[in-house]
Design brief:
13 helices; 307 residues; alpha/beta; Rossmann fold; two-stranded antiparallel sheet
Amino acid sequence: MSDDFKFLMIGAMYENGGNTTHRFLDGHPQLFVYPFESQVGTRFVSDPLTSVFPTKYRWPSFLLEATPEQDYRAIIDEECKVRARTPNVSKFRDWPMDLDDDERCRIYQGYVTKAGRSRGSNVEAFFRATFDAWKDHRRTGKEEYYVGYSPIITVDADKILNDLPCAHVLHVIRNPWSAYADTKRRPVPLALGSYMLGWTLSQYSALFFQKKFPGRVHIVRAEDVMADARGTLGRLMGELGLKTDASLSKPTWNGHDLKEVYPWGTIRVPTPEQNLATARQLDVQEIEEIRQRAWQYLDVFGYETLV
């Protein structure tokens, strides 16, 4: 199956505009866009980066002796499984969605039984089964690419691209001051040093893999998406052989307009003005420490004079 599976995986450090970019792509007629964060990781992921990033956001690992059903159950996919199985406790409970998770599991097993178990086949089956089982998904019949989003998964771009020969990775970067200011709004935010470790690892991975896989790893700035989503993402669509569409101008979910991106992400109103105002919420000491920790990437991405 994976030899002709067209797939775009979005990655971004926390509060870097991944969810926002995901929602701007949602209404494109040639895309099957996953409804929430597609947290394809499993608890079997184990490498030096598991001490930095949660396994739910990583590219998955599977047990050799597992069955297709066990593989499916191992995929964490917290946001979608909670919405499907216990909708009343989901933060997306107010958004109608007709998807039976047990039916999705059965469809998944059918795909994997036919193709054989492998990491690439398992992930492909997971995305195909989601849209087969999603009864009220507003499809156009023109879809070509499946689109997922998982925070920080750019660190696994090499695994994604090796497992799925027709896959691409889109990395979204946002200036570290606005990003950290939004992180501070969380109930239990990461400390500045811990946050910046993840931010710098994400940018290093994106730049490294872009050189290693030319034409398959794409980088956009959240600031450019906010300023001109249709133009910025339209260029990406052209690189994928797809059309620029008016739908790229606004964030949606299942084709329904969103007045704000929340609760999909902490960025509520994705505008350049709000983005800059968010960065300026930090105090002088925080601004300077972030500048010191991110120094080698500020010139590269055009952030050296932002604040």
